[in-house]
Amino acid sequence: MGYIRKNITLIIGIAIPVLMIIFVAVSIYLPGIFIEPKSNFLYISSNDGYNSTYKYTIQNKKLTRSELPITKNSPRVLKEVKIYIHDIATNKSKEISFGEAQELNLNSNLVSPDGFKIVHGGRSDGFFPFFIWSETDYSTFYVQGRSISKKLNLILTSLSYDNFRFIGWIE
Amino acid sequence: MATKEEVIGYIKTLAEQKILTRDEVATAYDSGSKIKVDTILARKLGIAEILYYIGGAIIFLGISILLWQNWTILGFGTKVLVTLGSGVAAYIVGLLFSRDEQIETVGSAFYLISALVMPIGIWVVLDNAGFKTDSYASQSFISGVMLITYLFSWLAFRKNIFILFSILFGTWFFFNFTGWIVQGNPLFDDWKFSMYRVLVAGTAYINIGYAFSKNERAPLSGFLYGFGIVGILGSALTLGEWKPNQNIFWELIYPGLVFGALFLSVYIKSKAFLTWGTLFLMAYIIKITSEYFSTGLGWPLALVLAGLSMIAVGYMSISIKRKYLT
Asked: Which of A16, A24, A125 faces B181 most closely, judged by CB atoms?
């Protein structure tokens, strides 16, 4: 007890950064134990950005597609994109056909019924103490809401900025 | 034999006549009580000592350039030998030199080489093992290993320089480890999170500096106070942000922090607190004036007010220094 009293400022000095580490870790991992996102969702990914053969929309909660005409302005060879369903509980994606996707009831709101949305992750580089580079990481996605965020293991067919397009939450 | 009261009375008389200084009394006490004073960081740096440290830094540069220019030619074993090998060798040479008080400072230059080169050695090993070396995880590992190395070195040899290296590597570890926990998480604003980390590190530095000021590690206090107060006031000022995105909490609490620093400068007798407190108070006056008063009163009048405030702050700072710190 005498040692603690004598060295109280030293103990406080060492404890403050340790407490911050604990606080940051707890604020990230603890809410995730009690709050779980529940809505699965549908997304598309293409290795050729937006050069899709089809335009995908949701009408009356069902997925529809219309063929995009090849015009003089877009003479590129258009490719079919892949459709994936993401199971939020297992954090795994599975490719499904357009026919299978059409059978699902979809909600095109950006925020899910249980209050979550899908956002990009961030990336910062540099060596201590020069952590000055911070930018959006287009290869990582998180489901975020209600004070928590969880990294999503999506299947992305390219690393370009338009490699992911959210279609809708599955009802 | 004079009594204790007589000796204290005599010291008082000599102090009043400015014949005896506080340091001389402390040195005499330490000498008599057999406290071994670590002179490496306590001694004022002369030309020779500065050259030792510059030499150490140049050796580090030489090793780095050798590695960089011949990265593809050198094999893994050679790279490890050049970096980790020379780092360990410099550490051992430092230990040997430290045994003789005459050449102790040369030993500290070798400790500096080891502290600079050994992290590169670990970096080379991680790179060869296929790890992403610029990641937070790798940097946390490197700084963690170095922190443990120097903490054990301090426990074994009780030298202030090992405490200094432990604090530096500990800071590196703190920033990287928290970065590793958070990395990419959209809940954390990268920039604000960095500022809070600087604030925490600054607070820790000041607390540790104050604890050290009362024992044989007192030479480290000045360094810790200086960086600590810059960290706290700099991050708090930055967290206040700029109109229209200003953070009212930090803008309101900031004067309290600055005046707290100025008050503490007298209490802990720190010129770093007084100097940085004064400079950051001036920065705050300029910020607030340009943020809120440049449109209402007009920019020229705001500048006059800011100038007068700064003259007042400067006068107050010099008065405090003359009255309490000299």
From this structure: A24
- Mean pLDDT in residue range B269-293: 86
Q: Are B178 and A21 a contacting pair at CB < 8 A?
A: yes
Are residue A48 and residue A82 in the same domain, yes or no?
yes
* Residue located via tokens 């954090």: A91
- How many Å apart are CA A57 and CA B223, to the nearest integer? 62
Judge if A6 and A52 occupy the same domain.
no
**Integer Cα distance of B213 and B160 in angstroms:** 13
Asked if A57 and A128 sit in the same domain, the reply is: yes
What residues of B are in contact with residue A28 (Cβ under 8 Å)?
181-182, 185, 187
Instruction: List the domain range (segments joined by +) for residue A117.
Output: 36-170
B206: nearest CA partner in chain A? A13
Looking at the structure, do residues A144 and A130 belong to the same domain, yes or no?
yes
Give dist(CA B207, CA B315) in Å, integer: 29
B82, pLDDT greater than 80: yes
Complex ipTM: 0.76
Half-sphere exposure of residue B66, counting CA atoms within 13 Å on the CB side?
A: 17
Contact B208 A9 (CB under 8 A): yes
- Count of domains in chain A? 2
- Verify that A52 and A14 share a domain, yes or no: no
Q: Each residue of A13-34: pLDDT tens digit?
A: 999 999 999 998 988 888 878 8
Q: Which residues of B touch A119 (CB under 8 A)?
A: 186
A40-78 burial code (b ≥16 CB/10 A, e <16): bbbbbbbebeeebeeebebeeeebebeeeeeeeeeeeeb
| Among candidate residues B153, B23, B20, B10, the one with its CA nearest the CA of residue B88 | B153
Alpha-carbon distance A46 to A97, whole Å? 14
Q: Are residues A41 and A109 in the same domain?
A: yes
Q: Are residues A22 and A56 in the same domain?
A: no
Q: Are A107 and A113 in contact (CB under 8 A)?
A: yes
**Predicted TM-score of the model (pTM):** 0.78
Clarify whether residues A29 and A105 are in a common domain: no
